[in-house]
């Protein structure tokens, strides 16, 4: 399977959201990555349902919704209703993670859990079998354009090993500081889905950057 590329619309031009959505539609990107921040779980506020709706109106690819919010279980049904295909909640934001994962699945979405840089992948051992994807945060969540934290690479290797035992089809997504210069090592480590904001929207040709990321072949 070729890697999944998910441009983060957090780095899009919000005054030209339709244009940037069309750019992703016509590119080789696979998903739209949608970062929802509440100013409580993370020290920043991004956007909520109105922006999700606006993207959904034009998006022709799945919406990969990353909830950086407390009490995500309160909003899952509404995110599903507004068009989320994959919903990621943070391990650190869920006391009853197993229940939250079931709520995501019952809402008809793929279930994913994100880990902050300080959270060990071993904590997911008993729930891995229930997940479609794990998102490894390779920066501290809250802002686009930050530097990749190198230790994230070891976490991907460890998670891939763990997944091989119980859930070999698990998708491993990496989010934060992903670029054309580190994506190859991340694929080799065992990740297969990549979020990129700054690397894509800051490129002179976002479409070409997406194609370059999509077509890296490690074999
Ligand atoms: C950060 C968000 C990321 C962000 C990535 O909290 O979860 O999705 O948009 O942006 P870059 O690729 O610029 O690090
Ligand atoms: Zn994200």
Automatic annotation (TrEMBL):
Cofactor note text: Binds 1 divalent metal cation per subunit.
Q: In which pathway does it act?
A: Carbohydrate degradation
Q: Where does a divalent metal cation bind?
A: 33, 35, 66, 175
Q: What would be one Pfam family of this protein?
A: Ribul_P_3_epim
Instruction: Cite the binding residues for substrate.
Output: 8, 66, 142-145, 175-177
Give the GO molecular function terms. Answer: D-ribulose-phosphate 3-epimerase activity
Tell me what this protein is called.
Answer: Ribulose-phosphate 3-epimerase
The organism that produces this protein has a lineage beginning with: Bacteria, Pseudomonadati, Bacteroidota, Sphingobacteriia, Sphingobacteriales
State the encoding gene.
rpe
